[in-house]
Amino acid sequence: MKTFSKRALLRASAAPAILGASLIATAAFAQDAPQAADAEAADTIIVTGSLIKNPNLAQSTPVLATTSDEIDLRQSNNAEQLLREIPGVVPSIGSAVNNGNGGASTLDLRGLGSNRNLVLVDGRRMVPYGLGGVFDLNNIPLALVERVDVLTGGASTTYGADAIAGVANFILKKDFSGFEANLSEQLTEQGDGNTFRADVTMGANFDDGRGNAVFSIGYQEVDPVYQGDRSFSSTYLESYLAECTSCQGSGTSTPTRMTLPGVGTRQISADGNSLVPTYQTYNFNPYNIFQTPFKRFNMFGSANYEISDSVKAYTRGMFSKNTVNTIIAPSGAFALAVEIPYSNPYLTDGIRNQFCNANGLTAAQCSAAATAPSMIANPLAGQAGQPDMIANPDYRTFNTTISRRAVEAGPRISEFKTTFFDYALGFQGDIGSHLSWDVGGSYGESEQVQTQKGYTLNSRFQQALLATATEGCLDSSNGCVPVNIFGPTGSITQDMVDYLSADSQITTKTTLAQAHATLSGDFGVTSPLASNPIGFAVGGEYRKYTASIESDLLSQANDLGGAGGAQPNVSGGFDVYEAYGELIAPLIEDRPFAKLLSVGAGVRYSSYSVDAANSPSYDTWTYKFEGSWAPVADVKFRGNYSRAVRAPNVSELFTPVTTGLTNLGTDPCAGSAPLGNANLAAVCIAQGAPASTIGFIEQPSAAQANASSGGNLDIKPETSDSWGVGATFTPTFLPGFNASIDYYNIKVKDAITTPTPGDAIAACFDNITAASATSAACTVIGRAEDGSLNGTATGLYLPLSNLGKLKTDGIDLSLNYKHEFDFATLTLGFNGNWTNSSKFQATPTSLNRDCVGYYSVNCASIQPKFQWSQRTTFTFGDVDLSLLWRHINKVKYEPAQLQADMDAADAINRDSNGVLLPVDQQDCPDYAGADAGGCVVDSQFRKIKSYDYFDLTARAQVSDNVTLTFTVMNMFDKKPPILGGSVGSTSYNSGNTYPSTYDALGRKFAVSAKMKF
């Protein structure tokens, strides 16, 4: 939190709707599509990026494949960790995200948001985990993964809506026969973060090989790693003022902080007898975690059976039960407006006198109120119509806003228990020698029960403070126990904690029913200059989504202290009917200067119907064009263009407008700035700040402000245009070497987005005039009783619309080489990504922000300009020795935000006429230099140098049936960069660093054993 320093005005988190290939060498390679090896492995061929199943037809869309062998070398325990390190993938919600983790792990290709890419299993969608329509990667059974294909660019023609950035397709093992068991254990060098995983897979052929059945079962358990157990994260650092000891933490602290009329916020002194300037904030870091505790039990089964020579039945079932816990610092009263009697039994004389003076009570009135009960005996009792008790005229109360951390209640824990299943059944077969068909369907459900533990209730704090005796409250309902907020840590006793606290529960349910029918093959017709026939696929698809959230009354009422806002009940759904077609035509083959020349095209029509009043509906068309040219066998050039769409999800359509939290470091109305600027003061008052609070408004607590947003049934699908060109090289003069390079360009228009908090602040406060107090951009912001953007404030208004734009482009490079020496086999692999730009504009009047190579609250997770992964493996008979080198290019604090900070600091130093104030009256003196006011990010936190990590793996086949693998991760124990805790968004800037991008756990050891029979 930065409550006690003066900061620049416009520092705000984007965390907008958008925010939401290092796998190489021995087992990862760039490719056009799975080719003959896959064709020989099984009858069912899965070609990522195409509905045409002929592996002999060249695809023109680049696909990066990661095999199970690479997964073994990495000792990956879940799919999110595996994908997170692929160059071009931006770290999203996963095990390294604590505050902001919704109990799931997601994928973010190209930084366009986890809702703009698809995660598939064997080319099919799975039921999402929440209302955002995103699949939870925790449900992927890694033990059965044969390979992972990552395709970049619009793929809506092939897979339908949402595949704007691309797809990640998990191809599972087929026709498995035998028994395989895997055991693995991981532990950090400091002895924490233990990870255990066990999987057993068995399969068999039956009926003379006509059928096959596979069953797998797995269990995984991960222990937390606390930020308090690492020296660099045990104490919260303020990114804007690292040297300020009173700024290092949250203003919701102990002793209690209270607003005093005409004075501002003060803190109860150490002796409890007075209110003094804030001297002790709360260090919340030790409670928070770098690695979320996780338990998973999963089962998978699949079977196929040849009913006849031309018809095969197949089925697949997936089940998992996952438990994810997030752990954050204790609950409490976060800028909570309360009413307190002057006769509260725990209120000390000194503090009482301060409130009496501030509220204009005379000494006699204050003395009388100090002991006054709320009711007294009626001297006329017994007479007709007279009550026994009447209101005491000496009884008085005062209003204040309190910030009290309930450390006595322990940490806040959100336990997410997700039960997931998805079942599929289908039939496929051949019609003659040129055609094949596939008809199938699936149904899946996900239910997540979130139990919030350790939270105190706002309403019970308010009830418990309305007391005039220690024995009971004025309102005795709920077994009320008066609470003592006027003492040091420990003044809230266990009886008080028991009364203040309650668990809350939120249940999220989603379903997905889908059916498809596809006819594919070839026309039996070839180009006169080609040998392979023209391939095609046509078909139709139907999908039905439903999703709902059911919250208990505590969550609906936003009664949990520090829960981030109310969670209303939500229910909605939509369905879509689709028809599609695709062609691949080899035009020239095996000719001079045309070893191959082929073209392809595809189109998909989709009709959506929303389950709402008046049945909103819309239709979309997506299409693609692609081509490949290989002048000789050694070189092939390829290009593609596609139109893709993303339909609004259930959350974007149906969520009512609610108030939650966003990142905002500085409130323009906070501090003394409005005192010297009458126009600014008028705006603050127009937004709901009482006139008496001007000059005393607090900065957002813990750099988080309230914001209101919700769904919109009027939004329509967003569209994207993407294109790419590239080349592959397999030189005959260098056997064992192959390379590929591809440029991609993705633009999204009519993007479904909300304004960033910075946009909302800028729209109102950028150019304050006398008319600003009546401007809609200003009056739409709502403030609390103390004038702040916390507590009961509706905060910033961030409406959902189709006004956004996104754009990204870059280059992927893949190099692979394998050579056999007399003593060993050397395998080299390199995959890298260079991102030229990744721009986001929430509205036409918003800043068109580019976050590549930068970090700030606007840019969420870090997306470096360049990153690569290189693996070197030596194979000595049955022993592999492999080194993985991961590089993350240097990044720096976002220049646009730094300039905005400085511009705002300059504005703070001027009066309403734009005249620079004397230095001794400036809130941000020398902001470009020493910056004693803490108005810009501390210079030591403005850049991160390039980072290199090395993982060493040794693998040995100790017998025909047993393979042992040992890995040292981050073998040089490289510490993460230290940036403070308020330079970025809450989800990704945690523990004074960015733990999703940089390793915060330190050196880690992993060992695993695989047994095959």
TrEMBL record:
<dbReference type="InterPro" id="IPR010917">
    <property type="entry name" value="TonB_rcpt_CS"/>
</dbReference>
<dbReference type="GO" id="GO:0009279">
    <property type="term" value="C:cell outer membrane"/>
</dbReference>
<feature type="short sequence motif" description="TonB C-terminal box">
    <location>
        <begin position="996"/>
        <end position="1013"/>
    </location>
</feature>
<feature type="short sequence motif" description="TonB box">
    <location>
        <begin position="44"/>
        <end position="50"/>
    </location>
</feature>
<feature type="signal peptide">
    <location>
        <begin position="1"/>
        <end position="27"/>
    </location>
</feature>
<dbReference type="InterPro" id="IPR000531">
    <property type="entry name" value="Beta-barrel_TonB"/>
</dbReference>
<feature type="domain" description="TonB-dependent receptor-like beta-barrel">
    <location>
        <begin position="400"/>
        <end position="970"/>
    </location>
</feature>
<keyword id="KW-0813">Transport</keyword>
<dbReference type="InterPro" id="IPR037066">
    <property type="entry name" value="Plug_dom_sf"/>
</dbReference>
<keyword id="KW-1134">Transmembrane beta strand</keyword>
<dbReference type="InterPro" id="IPR039426">
    <property type="entry name" value="TonB-dep_rcpt-like"/>
</dbReference>
<keyword id="KW-0998">Cell outer membrane</keyword>
<keyword id="KW-0812">Transmembrane</keyword>
<dbReference type="InterPro" id="IPR010916">
    <property type="entry name" value="TonB_box_CS"/>
</dbReference>
<comment type="similarity">
    <text>Belongs to the TonB-dependent receptor family.</text>
</comment>
<keyword id="KW-0472">Membrane</keyword>
<dbReference type="Pfam" id="PF00593">
    <property type="entry name" value="TonB_dep_Rec_b-barrel"/>
</dbReference>
<keyword id="KW-0675">Receptor</keyword>
<dbReference type="InterPro" id="IPR012910">
    <property type="entry name" value="Plug_dom"/>
</dbReference>
<keyword id="KW-0798">TonB box</keyword>
<keyword id="KW-0732">Signal</keyword>
<dbReference type="InterPro" id="IPR036942">
    <property type="entry name" value="Beta-barrel_TonB_sf"/>
</dbReference>
<protein>
    <submittedName>
        <fullName>TonB-dependent receptor</fullName>
    </submittedName>
</protein>
<dbReference type="Pfam" id="PF07715">
    <property type="entry name" value="Plug"/>
</dbReference>
<feature type="domain" description="TonB-dependent receptor plug">
    <location>
        <begin position="60"/>
        <end position="167"/>
    </location>
</feature>
